[in-house]
Description:
Layout: E1 9-14, H1 21-32, E2 36-38, H2 39-49, H3 52-62, H4 69-80, E3 86-90, H5 96-106, E4 111-118, H6 121-129, E5 131-134, E6 140-142, E7 161-162, H7 169-182, H8 185-193, E8 197-201, H9 206-222
Parallel strand pairs: 1-3, 1-4, 2-3, 4-8
Antiparallel strand pairs: 5-6, 5-7
Helix pairs in contact: 2-3, 4-5, 6-7
Amino acid sequence: xxxxxxxxxxxxxxxxxxxxxxxxxxxxxxxxxxxxxxxxxxxxxxxxxxxxxxxxxxxxxxxxxxxxxxxxxxxxxxxxxxxxxxxxxxxxxxxxxxxxxxxxxxxxxxxxxxxxxxxxxxxxxxxxxxxxxxxxxxxxxxxxxxxxxxxxxxxxxxxxxxxxxxxxxxxxxxxxxxxxxxxxxxxxxxxxxxxxxxxxxxxxxxxxxxxxxxxxxxxxxxx
Length: 223
């Protein structure tokens, strides 16, 4: 085995909001035996707990803006310090500044692989504007694709369902504008400069997307 293959694996899931990163992160975490770290989940935990960081982050999230880099990185690196065997990142990095900081963190210690979930804007709006979240457990469902058994009630914990402010169409459009401006340069960075990026067609059926994810990982790790 090459010495690089023995290093813990870090998988970065990229793509605009609603592209399917969160959907496939759980099964991928189970398949690889690696923890799934979602910066969105980290922020929501802090927001629910009303921490100082959570209150700051909420102001940006509610307006469809990216949380400032230093807030993201402080929270993220505190969490990944516990993950000696590698991890899956969902929602970070989102800027070149964050990517450079992550590179410094993993350089010499981890193998880095980036999967970019591709999807059209109109499909994203359709997916996100129908999403409902539970006030109790935080799980999501969808009005069209995965409706709850009882209207307005979470199937998992019977908590009340609601539409997050950042899932409303006007905010979604703003989130996509922010994504294109600040995150798309990462495709160039990871694709041409680092050569660690694999493209995933996220408009396929879920099982086909996951199959492509596994194939891309296999090619990247063992090529």
